[in-house]
Amino acid sequence: MNLEFIINTISLGSMYALLALGLVFVYGILKLVNFAYGEYLMIAGYALYVLGTFTGLPWSIVMVAAIFVAAFTSYTTELVAFRPVRTKSMSAMLVTSFAVSVFLQNLVVIFISPRARAVRFPSFFSETVTIAGATVPVRNLLVIATTVVLLAVLTLVMKRTVLGMAMRAAADRFTATRLMGVPANLVISAAFLISGLLAGTVAIFWVSRSASVDPLIGAAPLLIAFIATVMGGMHSLIGAVIGGFVYGLLFNILSITLPASLISYRDAFMFVIVILFLLFRPEGIWRGGYTEERVG
Amino acid sequence: MSDGSRLPALLQKRSTLLILGVPLVVLGAVVYVTDIPVVVNIYTFFCVNLMLVLGLQMFMGNSGILAWTHVGWMGIGAYASSILSVAPMMKDLGVPNMYPALVQLQTSVPVAIALGGIVAALVAALIGWPLMRLSDAVGVITLFATLIVIHVVLTQWDNVTNGPRTFFGVQEWTTLWIALAGALIILVVAHWFRESSWGLRLRSSRDNRFASMAMGTSVVQVRYVAFVLSALIAGLSGGVWAHLITSFSPKSFYITEAFTLLTMLVIGGQGSISGAVVGTTLVTLAREGLRQVEAGINNSGMFSWEVYGLTELVLAVFLIVVLIWRPSGVIGGQELTWPLFKRKRREEEPAAVESVSAESG
């Protein structure tokens, strides 16, 4: 087991953990599997493209702005699409999130382009450094650092602030939390905002891998978030983080061990493993506590 | 209600089928007689989509599980039937890497379509049981993942499917009448299933899983039966579709197509056959109209760039609006029955669902 593999796996796992975490924030409270989640990432990618290409702002501001654009998109979709159907059936909400995803994709197709656009990144993103004999892209180290900081901040917010405690309570027993005087709209909006922030953050690293963005870029991260959360456990934030890291590990191991003729089936193998895993442990790796039925 | 001989009673009992089926046939005849190629084409595709949506309703509408895999079964049916019906020479040309054993196979088109449906149903039967144990969010995600697996296999297995490239050379066999007949047969099957003991048990499990289990329903079993049956119909429809469109690639059986079918079902109302038919009609009309608008915009040069995706954009908005305004669809969970408005006057309780039937046209 060499250092290069370990660092790459941790960085991949970190990115996936953030992705999964963003999905679970909304799922935990609203019990909504948000199919539009990948689109927040895509919108952030296009924000990077538009701001980076046409405004000449310094890259640090462009990146922060892109993250906020994702958060704003997430918040807006909640306000316009999810809030009115929140009290309706589960499948109505699922279909709504799918429709939101199609809507955002086609918005970009119409107003920007169906084809991929190049995104400029500062040069240090693509450089590599050598640590103890292992050559590692700077980007991978940045992902790890960002994840550590974000997880620490989020842990503090969730454990120490009133809003965080209200959100954790709402994920456990939404009705009881509302009876204690916590406004439902506030908690749900906060969850969507955090979800969008995480998607926007991941978008920077995701887009930087290919340095281009296209309308369908959100599909792959959405799937990863799905699978990681299902594997880690849908009912807790810790489970999502664990799921992300396990998924990253599994992905890298399959990439190395699968023979060349089967490598194109890697995704299929991943999902088969996950489906098999779910058969034996439907609740995921990290067993969450009691969860009640969805309430509006 | 109706007294006298048995026939009116039977007609009343089956009035849903008549209300839905007769306009389909009449419209089909009108389209056939007027014989405008564009309209014939649209109506034929409408009938094939109706087959797919009715098959989707059978599982999704009755079980309440979002059935992502439906387009996957359609794809398997389309590929299986096309591989069986295309002449060996054509396959040599179109799919250079195909396994020699498959190249030699050739049957007539109807047999190929039937076998295609059976292949889809077999695959569904093989993997369906464990999937049916999962409910709620985990179930949705797992079915979604299953669609991805099907898509990856269709895209990568180029010894069978020609990989991501187009599979062409399929004989054009599906006509207006074949598609219409298919739609009518599946209409009857879907109606029969919904009213059968299986359908009733499945619907009870949709409305309250635990109460249904307590009443002795084996939820996994009834879901499984519906899943396999719906896959069979999707496979058959896929075969009919393939022999209409004649060339396709795995892209045709993925998220875009799933969105179209889902929109059709959900806008009409996933809980009923009537909803499936009305939804398919509305969405087909909307799509054709929007295509005209899109073409008009592009021809007029209103924008300096080509406008793509307007159809999907508007349909997505349409879908969200319908879900907000009427989350169980335009028709809702009840079937249209004859007489359409009588019951409203007779009963005091609000029969809101029936009153909507006026829009079914």
Your description of this structure?
The complex is a heterodimer of chains A (296) and B (361). With 296 residues, chain A is mainly α. Chain A is globular. Chain A has eleven helices and four strands, in the order H-H-H-H-E-E-E-H-H-H-H-E-H-H-H. Chain B starts with 5 loop residues before the first helix and ends in a 6-residue tail after the last helix. Chain B has one domain. The longest helix of chain B has 28 residues, at 273-300. Chain B has helices spanning 6-13, 15-34, 37-63, 70-85, 88-94, 100-104, 109-132, 136-156, 158-161, 176-195, 197-207, 209-214, 219-245, 255-268, 273-300, 310-325, 342-346, 352-355. Chain B is 73% helix and 0% strand. The A-B interface holds A 27, 31, 33, 81, 84-85, 88-92, 94-96, 98-100, 102-103, 105-107, 109-110, 113-114, 219, 223, 226-227, 229-230, 234, 264-265, 267-268, 271-272, 274-275, 278-279, 282 and B 64, 66, 130-131, 133-134, 136-138, 140-142, 144-146, 148-149, 152-153, 156, 255, 259, 262-263, 266, 270, 305, 307-310, 312-313, 315-317, 319-320, 323-324, 327-328.
Q: Which key phrases capture this entry?
A:
heterodimer, A: about 300 residues, mainly alpha, two-stranded antiparallel ribbon, globular, disordered C terminus, B: about 350 residues, about 0% strand
